Amino acid sequence: MRTNYCAEINENDIGKEVELCGWANSYRDHGGVIFIDLRDKTGLVQLVCDPADSENAHKIATRVRDEYVLIAKGKIRARGEGLENPKLKTGKIEVVVDKLIIENHSAALPFVINDQNVNEEIRLKYRYLDLRKKELYNIFNLRSKVSIAVRNVLDEQGFLEVETPILTKSTPEGARDYLVPSRIYQGEFYALPQSPQIFKQLLMISGFDRYFQIAKCFRDEDLRADRQPEFTQIDIEMSFCKEEDVMKVAEDVVKAAFGAAGYEINPPFKKMKYHDAMEKYGTDRPDLRYGLEMTEVADLFEDSTNEIFSTIASNKYLNRIKALKVPGGDNFFSRKMMKELENFVRKFGASGLGYFQMKEEGLKGPLLKFMSEKSIEELVNRCELKTGDLVFFGAGEKKLVLDYMGRLRIEIAKQMNLIDENRFEFVWIVDFPMFEVEDGKVKALHHPFTMPKDININGVEEIESVAYDMVVNGVEIGGGSIRIHKEQIQEEVFKLLGISEEEAKEKFGFLLDALKFGAPPHGGLAFGLDRLIMLLTKTSSIRDVIAFPKTQRAQCLLTEAPNKVANDQLRDLHLRIREIKKDNQ
Length: 585
Ligand code: ASP
Description:
Elements: E1 17-30, E2 33-40, E3 43-49, H1 55-61, E4 69-78, E5 93-104, H2 120-125, H3 127-130, H4 134-156, E6 160-161, E7 179-181, E8 189-191, H5 197-205, E9 210-218, E10 230-239, H6 243-260, E11 270-273, H7 274-281, E12 294-296, H8 307-314, E13 319-326, H9 329-332, H10 335-346, E14 354-359, E15 362-364, H11 373-382, E16 390-397, H12 398-415, E17 426-430, E18 435-438, E19 441-444, E20 467-472, E21 475-482, H13 487-496, H14 501-515, E22 522-528, H15 529-537, H16 567-572
Parallel strand pairs: 3-5, 6-9, 11-17
Antiparallel strand pairs: 1-2, 1-4, 2-3, 4-5, 7-8, 9-10, 10-22, 12-13, 13-16, 14-15, 14-16, 17-20, 18-19, 20-21, 21-22
Helix pairs in contact: 4-6, 7-12, 10-12, 13-14
The protein binds aspartic acid.
Residues 173, 195, 197, 479-481, 524-526 line the site of aspartic acid (ASP).
C-alpha cells in the first residue's frame, strides 16, 4: 500500500510523489492548515493538509485524532526557512497531502504512548499500544538481528538447529517445574522444560555432533528483576570436544551477537578460577570494569587482642577477614556516608563494618588498638596503602562475609562513579566446585550431568567440575559444562547427591539407558538471550526485552493468564480445585 516508509524519505526526495501509511502520532490545526505527524516503525514524517492544495484532504484531516490509521498520498517538499525540526530524521521535509484516507479509527487511548511516566500495569495490559513506542520497537529489532546473527554463526560452524519438546518430563536444573496435566493419563503430568539439557545430550548420543536451539525454558521461581517464568536460551551442545572448544564457539557466538548490535569485542576472554573470583570479588560473577579487589587478612588478626577478631581468624577454613581497599576513599566518604555503608551491609547480615584510614601521619581507625605493630605494618604493605586510601573490613563466616563485602564493592563503585557504562568486560569463570552443601544436603552447583574433574577426592566440597560461566559486567550471560558420558561416573555422582538408584531411574532413567549405548564425550552451554539483549540495549528490566512479558507475580496482564477454567475442562483433566481458606494456608 505504500511507496516508502515514513522516516526513510529525506531532502534528496524533494519533488517526489509518495504514498505513506501509518498512525497519527499527533495533529495540530494552525489556522486552517492541519499538520499531522505520521508514524510507522521507522519514525515520523510531517504531513501538511492545506485546503489550498486539496480541500478534500483538508476536510478529512479535520476528523483525524490520535492513533487513527491513515493512508496519505502527496508530494515531498522542503520545509520553509526556520521551520526545520533538527530533532527529527525527516525534519527538513514535509509531505503536502493531496489524498488522505482514514483507514481506521482509534478509541480514546488509555495512556499517552510516549509518556515515560505511565504505570507499568497499564502498559502491560495494553502491551500492543506500549509496543508502538519507538524505543521498544528498536529493542525487538535488535533482538531479531542478534538471533539471526547467532543462527548464522552457528550454521557456519556446522551446528544443526533442532527443536526439542515443550511437553516433557522434569529436567535437572533444580527449579520448580511448571506442570501440565494429562487428559489421557489420569493423575499424570508433563513438565515444561527448564532447559533442553537432556534432549541435547541425547542428540549427541544420536551422533548429531553439533546442536543448537533458541529455546524457550520455563522455571516456576520467585521472580526477581531479571527473571521471567518463561525465558529464552541460546542452547548449544557439541561432541568430541574439550572445554576450550565450547568456549571458543561461545566466544564466536557473543562476538556475532555484539557485532549485530554494533559493538566490536575481542575474544579470547580472560579466565578466572571460581575460587579466586569469590575471594577477590565476593561473587562468581564479578564486574571487572573497576578494581576494588579484596585482600584476605585473617592472619593479621590471629594475635589480635580483640577476642572476636582473633576467634574469627583462628578458623581460616570457615571464616574470612577481608580488606577492601578504596583508593582515594578517605576524602570521598564522609562519616555519615560510611555509616550508611555500614547500614547497607547490615541488611545482608553483617554485624558491623570496620575501617582504616590512611592518613599522612599513618594508619588510623578504631581497630588499630587491637593489632600489633607488625600486623599493622604488614596490612599497609599487603594492601599497598597510600595516603587518602580507605579500607573496609568484613569479618565472620566465609559465605556471609564474601556476600556482603561483594555487595559493598558494587555499592562503592556506584557511589564513586567508577563504572564505565560504555565498556564490556568479559571473563570466563572456571573450575567451579562440583557440589555445594546446604543444610547438610549435597547439591550440584551446575547440574548433575556435569563432569567432575576428579571424583576420588576426599570431601565432596573439594571436587571441581569442568564447568564454565561467561560473565560480562557482573552479569552471568551464559554457562555450561563438559558432561558425564560414562554411566558409571553418572551413577557415582547421583550417589554423592544422595539420589537413590530408584530415584535416578525414575527421573533420568532414559538418559542413564542412553549412556549405555556408546555416548561420545560431549559438552555445551547456554546463553540467556534475554539478559544478553538487556545488556546490549542497556535496559534494566527483563520485561522490556520480551514482547509479551509477565509481571513479577507471573501474570500476563494482557491475556489475564493464569485464569480459571471451565469445570468440564477440569473434569477432562481429572482435576478438582480444592478451595483453601486463607486462614488455613
Ligand atoms: N542447561 C544448562 C542451564 O540451563 C546449560 C548447560 O549446561 O548447557 O543452565
